Amino acid sequence: MGDLREPLRDLTACGLPEALEVMGERWSFMILRASFNGLHHFEEFLSELGIARNILSNRLARLVEHGILDRAPCAEDRRRIEYRLTEKGFDLLPAMLALRQWGQKYGHEVIENPVLVDELDRLPIGPVSILAHDGRILGPADLRLVKPETLGLRADGSRAEAGQRLELGSYAEDPAIRAAE
To answer: Rounded to whole angstroms, how far apart are CA atoms 139 and 141?
Structure first.
């Protein structure tokens, strides 16, 4: 990715260590997957995931603490607690899908059933991609690290003009996802 490298020893200079601190273990991802599948209550998570009660309690508290899930009394029965994805939680969907696709590609005999599809045409979703500011799909050879003060400065010295940006709608505002809650 060019001559410039990230400061690999400096954990604060990158979002990856922060994300791994919050989500870096199996049960957090499994709880998040269950939330995307419409689970909201402690007992649902407990029975569906087969997770130990103390681990579930710890992971739910951690996800709430980091703003991934909201914890609130259930509207029908104020004694029950609901856990719902926040906007920050919904923003993890592309990362979850990328990891899922990677696991399906390189896992041993992983068969997708049910199949995740596009709501409009009910065909399987495509691979999660890295997109340029204008929507072009990028590969590893297209990526380069630059200093903030050189943003838009091309290798030939010319300056890039901001192109038409592809608007990627908010997952939290998607009615299909909201209906699944």
So the answer is: 6
Residue 93's nearest CA partner among 62, 132, 128, 55 is 128
**14-18, 35-39, 99-103, 136-140: the lowest-pLDDT one:** 14-18
> For residues 119 and 168, what is the distance between their CA atoms, to the nearest angstrom?
16
Contact 152, 160 (CB under 8 A): yes
Closest CA to 46 of 62, 61, 68, 30: 30
- The three-point CA angle 60-64-70 to 5° equals 110
**Strands (DSSP E) along the chain, which ranges?**
69-73, 81-85, 130-131, 137-138
Helix (H, G, I), strand (E, B) or coil at 171: helix
Quick one: average pLDDT of 45-67?
96
Mean pLDDT in the chain?
84
The continuous run of DSSP H or E covering 47 comes out as helix 42-49
**Helix pair angle (15-23, 26-36), 10° resolution:** 80
Q: Phi/psi of residue 27, each to 5°?
A: -65, -35
Residue type for position 180: A
pTM for the model: 0.76
